[in-house]
Write a structure and sequence with these properties.
Elements lengths: L9 H21 L4 E3 H10 L10 E5 H14 L5 E4 L12 E5 L3 E4 L12 E11 L2 H19 L8 H13 L3 H18 L3 E6 L5 H4 L3 E2 L1 H4 L2 E5 L2 E5 L3 H9 L17 E5 L21
Parallel strand pairs: 2-6
Antiparallel strand pairs: 1-2, 3-4, 4-6, 5-11, 6-7, 7-8, 9-10
Length: about 290
């Protein structure tokens, strides 16, 4: 964690840790399993907490628990403090996962500055799904996942290849209706999951992009996690977390060069003390003056 505020994001990290700790308590209370993922897992191993320059927290959750989370949250969570947010047929958050958001903060990314949605800081809950046992069905899961991601995100992938950028741009230009985009991604998601009903005992994060969705791991790593210290609290991690990190990062114990220690989010504005609602029309959903 950026305890010395060297990277100027300590207050952001403190809020993220607070959301994660509440999320952990909620999941334990309601029998939901999750593990730390991505840079959050890497931080637990290399720093016993958040990577000092990281402004993001990710967790993995098996699909069966992932689909229970939203309804359980609606019934039992402290909704004055936190919200469970997911794209649906009425609004799109331009993110293909569930976000657990702090209601009393503001964290506006540039890609959402024109959207009237929850603009609080969040942790990401990423589903992992069964990989099909049949090779043909396993292959077909990839295009369905890519179509799902394209029409669920509904934004151009700035950090992907030029090919992926142009293909996404073409697809979104051909289907401009919000309703049709929603129908496409729901159908693709349904078919992607159906293909994995007869599985090979492995899971993948199909919603995170082509490179990551091709990484496959034993499901038991998530069903029977280990625990590591993260910001002073024992947190669940994949059973063979070292292997997971090797596949994902290579030499994961060597920190990147100073110039590569950058924030993940493209932040327009943030305020960790006040709700995003007070900034509507000021920092987001700002009406543009007509050019005369």
């Amino acid at each position: 964690m950026d305890t010395k505020n060297e990277y100027g994001i300590r207050e952001i990290q403190e809020k993220l840790i607070g959301i994660l700790m509440y999320f952990k308590e909620f999941c334990e209370e309601h029998g939901l399993k999750f593990v730390l993922a991505g840079g959050t897992l890497l931080g637990a191993v290399r720093h016993q907490g958040m990577i000092p320059w990281d402004d993001d927290v990710d967790v993995f959750m098996l699909r069966e628990d992932y689909e229970k989370l939203e309804s359980l949250w609606e019934k039992y969570a402290d909704k004055n403090r936190f919200s469970c947010v997911r794209s649906n047929d009425k609004m799109n958050i331009h993110h293909a996962v569930i976000e657990i958001k702090d209601n009393n903060t503001t964290f506006i990314n540039y890609h959402n500055e024109n959207n009237d949605i929850h603009q609080g800081i969040m942790i990401d809950v990423i589903p992992v799904d069964d990989v099909a046992a049949n090779p043909i069905k396993r292959f077909l899961q990839i295009p369905y996942a890519m179509m799902f991601a394209c029409f669920n995100f509904q934004r151009l992938p700035a950090h992907k290849s030029k090919f992926m950028y142009n293909m996404t741009k073409l697809a979104l230009s051909m289907v401009k209706s919000f309703d049709y985009r929603y129908r496409i991604w729901k159908k693709c998601e349904k078919r992607m999951l159906a293909l994995g009903k007869k599985n090979n005992g492995q899971v993948a994060s199909f919603v995170e992009g082509l490179t990551i969705m091709r990484q496959r791991f034993p499901k038991e790593w998530f069903e029977h996690p280990e625990h590591l210290l993260f910001e002073g609290v024992q947190m669940p991690v994949p059973k063979d977390y070292k292997k997971w990190l090797e596949v994902s990062y290579g030499d994961y114990m060597t920190p990147p060069k100073e110039e590569d220690r950058i924030l993940r989010h493209n932040i327009k504005f943030y305020d960790m003390k006040n709700s995003y609602k007070m900034y509507k029309g000021i920092q987001y959903c700002v009406e543009k003056e007509e050019v005369k």
